[in-house]
Amino acid sequence: QADTITLTAGCTYTLTSTLTVNADSGNTLTINGNGATISGDNARRVLSTSFGAAVVISDVTITGGYNASSGGGIYNRGTLTITNSRITGNTADLLGGGILQDSGPFSLTINNSTITGHYSCGIGACGIYIMGGTVTLNNSIIAYNNGDIGGSSFSGYVLHASHSLIQSSLSNVNGTNTNNLTGDPLLDTNRRPQAGSVVIDAGNNALIPSGVTTDLAGNARIIGGTVDMGAYEYVPPPTSTPTATSTPTRTATLTPSVTPSRTATSTSTAPPRRPASPPAPRTPTATQTTTDTT
Description:
mainly beta; 14-stranded parallel β-sheet; 20 strands; 0% helix
C-alpha cells in the first residue's frame, strides 16, 4: 500500500538516524514537505533508498547530511523523484556530497529543484555523483558546488537534462540535452534567483509535474508566463504606484456683501433766527428855550 508522509510547514526535522526507505512491493512512499527542512545535523546521511524502493519527495529542503564515504544528503538505490526541493549544504568524504546514485538499474528524476552548496568531497563531484542508472534533470539548477555533477566512466550511466542549468559544464550530459544553460545563475544567499538571472522564465511549463502550482516558498509556480528553473520563482519587487491625491478645486464662494442702507442722519438745524425788533422810536428830548424879553 502506498504511504504518504506530510510534514508540518516551516518546521525543521533534525534526524537522529538516517531516514531509510525499503522496497514495499512496488508501492511508492510520498513525502510532502510543505516547505519544511530535514537535517542530518552534520552527523549522518539524511535519506537512503534501498534496492526496489520507490520514493517521491516534494517541497522540502535536505541539508546537514554527512557520510564518511558517499552520498551525504541522499544515497539512491531505487526509483527517486525530487520536485520543488532544495538539496544544500551536505558533505561526504569521497563522492557526491549532495546526492550519490549507486551503480545499477536505478533512477533519479529531479524537477524544478536546486542543488547547491556542496564543497567537501574527496575525489568526485560534490553536487551529484552518478555511478550508474539514469538521472534526469528538468527545470533544475546545479550550481555553487565543488564539482556540480559527474559520474563513473565505467558504469554506463545516462544523464538527461532539459531546460536546466549546470554551472560548470554540460559535458556530462550524454542523453537528452535540450535548452540547457551554464554559468552563474545569479542566486541570492537563500538560493533564489535575483533580478537579471538567466534562470528566470527559462524553464518549460510542460515539464512541471501534474498538480504542482506553487514553488518551494509557496509562491505561484509560474510568474510571468513561463516557469523559472530551480525551486523558486523570481518574484519582482512591488512597484510603487503613485497615490491619487485629491487636488483642491477653487470653488467660488458666495460671500454675502452688506450693502449699506441709507441711514437718516440727524442734522441739527438751527431754528430760524427771529427778526430783530425794530429800534424803539426816539423820544424827543425837551429843550429849554429862553426868550429874551428885554
